[in-house]
């Protein structure tokens, strides 16, 4: 039979309330009593019942994470960063993916209700924004990650995709490249939209006579490989290829390697995100670094600070006009072998 809180109280010769206060970290317990209760709980291998603790504290000790996908290094790194902060605070994660489907996103958000203390939501798809706004529970602390959701209240944490894309195009032009192709991401994805906008505006600003060269992509290796094959079949090869994320850049690199092209001697290749694999491929990948794990960790810290503020506000008058807070993270240009500077023609 499992050990109960009453067993701990009996063995420690204190009340159940004293055991509860001790295990929940309350300060109104004498130090000698606290040590005795903790020692007895440890000796008896007592584990608090999660459901009972939730009922008494109105906390689940769980953070919800709703993401568009779980496949790929970006999402694994993001969850790793969130999990690091959660573990530091002895919290659990409830993770769900909606695979870019608005209906599944609604189901995921609804499934989180009553099961989590706070919610991290990444919703980069434009068609889902109104849905997210409708489904977010105003009583549940929320932090949005890379989401363009016009909801009053939630904190938001985003990457400067537009500025990062401009910085990469500027770098490639400074290296002497003039024919710069761009592998775009999904059309409805906000990150992809902003990176494409940055590419177009930087190209127009720096090379007003240069034509855009945009190929479709889906943020995965296969679409990057298809784009690479399309570029190989073009009448004239580009000087450089800028992919809207690293996974597509790696797929493009593979297509070029299959064709015997030398990167960066024949054509330079660059990506965006700086996933861990980017530094271990050959040639190593030039990219815009988004510290993905830190993005997840930062979002988790923001959520925990909001949880603390929510708890404190319960003892004061509620603030019904809480302003939305947002942070914009700046990506960093990381120059590696695939995009090293070479002599240009202009």
UniProtKB/TrEMBL annotation:
SMART domains: HTH_LACI
Protein keywords: DNA-binding, Repressor, Transcription, Transcription regulation
InterPro entries recorded: HTH_LacI, LacI/GalR-like_sensor, Lambda_DNA-bd_dom_sf, Peripla_BP_I
Region (Disordered): 310-346
Highest taxon listed in the record's lineage: Bacteria
Gene3D superfamilies the UniProt entry points to: 3.40.50.2300, lambda repressor-like DNA-binding domains
Lineage: Bacteria, Pseudomonadati, Pseudomonadota, Gammaproteobacteria, Lysobacterales
Name this polypeptide is given: LacI family DNA-binding transcriptional regulator
Organism encoding this protein: Lysobacter firmicutimachus
């Amino acid at each position: 039979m499992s050990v109960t809180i009453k067993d701990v109280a009996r063995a420690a010769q204190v009340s159940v309330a004293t055991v509860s206060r001790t295990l929940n970290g309350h300060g109104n317990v004498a130090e000698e009593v606290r040590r005795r209760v903790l020692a007895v709980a440890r000796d008896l291998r007592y584990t608090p019942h999660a459901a009972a603790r939730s009922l008494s504290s109105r906390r689940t000790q769980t953070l919800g994470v709703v993401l568009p996908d779980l496949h790929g290094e970006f999402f694994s790194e993001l969850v790793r960063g969130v999990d690091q902060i959660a573990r530091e605070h002895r919290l659990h994660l409830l993770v769900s993916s909606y695979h870019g489907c608005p209906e599944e996103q609604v189901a995921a958000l609804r499934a989180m209700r009553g099961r989590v203390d706070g919610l991290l939501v990444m919703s980069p798809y434009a068609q889902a924004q109104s849905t997210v706004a409708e489904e977010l529970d105003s009583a549940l602390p929320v932090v949005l990650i890379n989401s363009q959701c016009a909801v009053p209240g939630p904190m938001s944490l985003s990457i400067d995709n537009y500025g990062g894309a401009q910085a990469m195009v500027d770098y490639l032009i400074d290296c002497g490249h003039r024919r710069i192709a761009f592998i775009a991401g999904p059309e409805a994805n906000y990150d992809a939209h902003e990176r494409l906008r940055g590419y177009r505006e930087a190209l127009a600003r720096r090379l007003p006579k240069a034509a855009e060269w945009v190929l479709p992509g889906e943020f995965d290796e296969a679409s990057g490989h298809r784009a690479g094959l399309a570029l190989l079949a073009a009448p004239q090869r580009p000087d450089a290829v800028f992919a809207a994320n690293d996974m597509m850049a790696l797929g493009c690199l593979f297509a070029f390697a299959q064709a015997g092209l030398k990167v960066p001697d024949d054509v330079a290749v660059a990506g965006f995100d700086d996933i861990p694999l980017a530094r271990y491929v050959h040639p190593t990948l030039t990219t815009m670094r988004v510290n993905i794990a830190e993005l997840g960790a930062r979002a988790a810290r923001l959520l925990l600070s909001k949880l603390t503020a929510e708890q404190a506000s319960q003892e004061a008058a509620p603030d019904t006009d809480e302003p939305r807070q947002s942070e914009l993270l700046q990506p960093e240009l990381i120059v590696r072998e695939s995009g090293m500077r070479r002599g240009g023609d202009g």
